[in-house]
Amino acid sequence: MNRMRISKKVAAGIAATATASLVVAGMAFSGGVASADPRELTQTYDCPYPLINIQPTKTVIKTDIPAKHPVGEPTPEFVINVEADAGLKATEGLNIVGGKTIEGTGISKVTLKGPGLDLPLDVPVVIPSNPIPANGNPLILKGITAKAPAITLPQPGTYKIDVVGLFLTMTPKKADGSPTGLGTFDSDCKLQGGMPTELATVEATGGGTTTPTTPTTPTTPTTPTTPTTPTTPTTPTTPTTPTTPTTPTTPTTPTTSTSNPGGGLIFKGDLKGSTFVKSPNGNAPLTGNIVADVDLATGNYTADLVLNPTVGDMNILGFLPTKVKISFEIPKKTVGVYGGTNLTAKATFITHLDEVAAFGFPIGGGPDCKTVAESTTDLKADPFDITKGGKLVGGYTLAAVKGCGALNDFISAFTAGPGNTIDLDLTPTN
């Protein structure tokens, strides 16, 4: 496969993955609902997802924040609403692993700056379960909510609220509610250059200078099963002594996969197994690797296949133990389809017999000893998970050989023929 890259630690997907995307959120202020002003901020982040690598994710934040707020009076907690668009590739990456819904949590990185105050805030975000649409439709996440912490403005003047970062933890799930092969993955999103960051400015009015308080840790909203319209926040009681918000743990790197310029997925995998050759009644171990370029929308792929040299144990005439040194020539691309739960592959190869030895004595082989025609095998793995792999099985026919020395016809008679099989474990390596 020219470009399919995969695995889980990946995302997710790509993928994650994710897959999935997000949110951003907000921060700090509100007077009464009647006096609050509607605020809106649109940003685009670059978010790494399993399978599909870095994808642009658009977020739209909406909330009500007053233009003015009295000095020395704590602001109440208030609700922030977010909608996110993770794009077409997020949909394709999640569908290819059998995802039907996606949910998660996040941290919106916010700063509050003004006279006597320069405060970074980590605002928890809840992403409720959202359906994953059919391919051809962007992944839109709705019902995302956050609650901003209470803040006390210490001095009169203008305070600026900026949204500067986003960290996500996402879980795509199958129709039965179980996680996909991507599991739960993290995505440390980076704001694209030139994006606006200002959500609001607030004028602190009246009063003298007060000692600024550290914001309370915002209440993490309960994850709803389906997106709901958030209720209007109530006015809080007298605030208790706030605690310093905790810093989120260092994000784990999601399964990174290389996306092609055209949007494909690069999958890399190791092959290990064996082949049975019917005519000489023998077996040979097989190892190799494959690099595939997968079209996420259709599952079609092309791949570069490598089969390593090996040594087979054969029994010519049913009793003559023979060791055969074998190598493979791959004349064309391997092609196939990943169907979400299964994989097909059509591979073509020419078999070289580098040495044929009976009872330890060479009787043929050499650099020119090979089959006179290509062999084609139709392999299938069912089940197959692109993040975990699977077992490929298939059959093939060996053509007659040429260039094998004085005993060429003897060797050919006991190697050529149908009924041969291949059994390979394909394990993702990226």
From TrEMBL:
Q: Where is the composition biased (Low complexity)?
A: 210-256
For this UniProt record, give its keywords in alphabetical order, as a comma-separated list. Answer: Signal
Q: Which positions make up the signal peptide?
A: 1-36
Judging by the UniProt lineage, the source's domain of life is: Bacteria
Among InterPro entries, the record links this protein to: DUF6801
Which ranges carry the DUF6801 domain? 44-200
Residue ranges of the region described as Disordered: 202-264
Q: What is this protein called?
A: DUF6801 domain-containing protein
Q: What is the organism lineage in this UniProt record?
A: Bacteria, Bacillati, Actinomycetota, Actinomycetes, Pseudonocardiales
